[in-house]
Amino acid sequence: MKKWTNIAIAGSILSSITLSTIPLHADAMEKPNQIDRPQYQIDAKLDQKQHRIQASETVSFKNKYGQNLNDLVFHLYPDSYNKLETMSNMQAKPNTPEMLAEIKKKYPNVTEKDFLGDIEVKSVTIQGKKVSYTQEKQALKIQLATPLQPHQQIDVKIDFTVTIPFGFQRMNHRDGFYALTKWYPILSMYDPKVKKWDENPYHPDGESDYSDFSDYKMKLTVPKEMTVAATGIEKETIQQNEKIVQVDAPNVREFVFFASPHYTKETRKIAGTTVNSYYDKRNPQSKEISLTGLKSVEKAIPFFNQKFGQYDYPEFDIMETRVMGADMEYPTIIQMGEYSNEGANMSLVHELAHQWFYGMIGNNPYRDPALDESFTTFADMYFHEYDTKGKYGFKTHLSYSEKAIKGMSGAINRPLDQYPSSSDYNEYVYGKGYIALIDLYYKVGEKKFDQIMKTYFAQNKFTNATFANFFEAVHKIAGKEVKDYMEKAFTKPGYHPTHLIQPKKETKK
Ligand SMILES: [Zn+2]
Question: Can you tell me which residues bind Zn(2+) (predicted)?
């Protein structure tokens, strides 16, 4: 995610007033050590009049945690939209009378209730039998009648309805654009050490989606005039007034889709990846911004492939949507805001870089928020450093670092609920964490730095990594002293960066 830093949100509300047969990459499809990943089969229908999804999902899950499981926990993130306080602080929401008044200028009929959404679990069936469950604090909990033994498999079928909120948040509908993100019951992660499932709700600051690499298949029914783009590969057929979209998304951490009758797309083949940019076909500026964005992506995908490792999915989609305040990353697809001004592409490369740090290398963003955001911010600036030949890149933030870091003596990486405020979270994770990686870059030099990143990527691709995995890669390539230095930088208080400028090259005679 990246916040829109230089755009006044209220002001921008006012002013703004296929078929694919590409073979899946073998690597993304099958990893011999991960054939046990959960399998999701989702059958969903979008009701455009009610702004609802009716769906049924079957999750086949094999217990790979090495101990008996007495219960199962699924995250119900759509319930974070059932009140303003639990919605994301990163995106615009009508949480002040001024904001609501501003929104009503453009949407006079909208009521406060329209901004709320939720998920309602209708029934849970295990191995064909209905079972009891609880739904609270954004979690679905199912007590198992008999414990699930290691390597034993279970099929859980969940019927549910999602009410899609109107508005500006990452799951929303507005102006005929639908964003279905973190919208279905998603199996949580189990920690065998503490014998507990992760039950962290969606945190208003940052991100708290923590889930396993899984295989998704979805059959989605929408009105026939809608264009749908999703995580994975879409295939569509028309049946009378309806469009049936079949989606296949193997080996991804989560699954989202976007739909609108207003979408058209531009497609490019970039370094072996099919890149689709979907935008509002009614707006000439949307096309312009979409084309400009594709130009950056044409350079950035090969750069990241070379510096970190190959983008390992066949497709990447860029979506113009109605999110406002911060853009968002999801596996193989990113959610941009409305293309209404030149700043619209500002975080495009950042969201693309998340495909490496969040998408392919997963993490628990509640416990290790810096592991995806600091690395992504660095990757974004690393690209710009090259692309602008140093004009805009690392040095852009050095003045910030000099001033800001003096007052930031706490540890960069902590669990989300341990930053004193929203702005502290932002400054540590996006600011100081990124500076720590520049420090590493200049400390070891570009060659070694790239080797560290490549090693980290290769060893952790398609898994949920921790900082320990990163330090391991640092240790392997640059030795113990550098590893200890980075460990202190990210996990201990009192770190001050020492290598923030290019060391002067010795002149050779
Ligand atoms: Zn981000």
Answer: 350, 354, 373
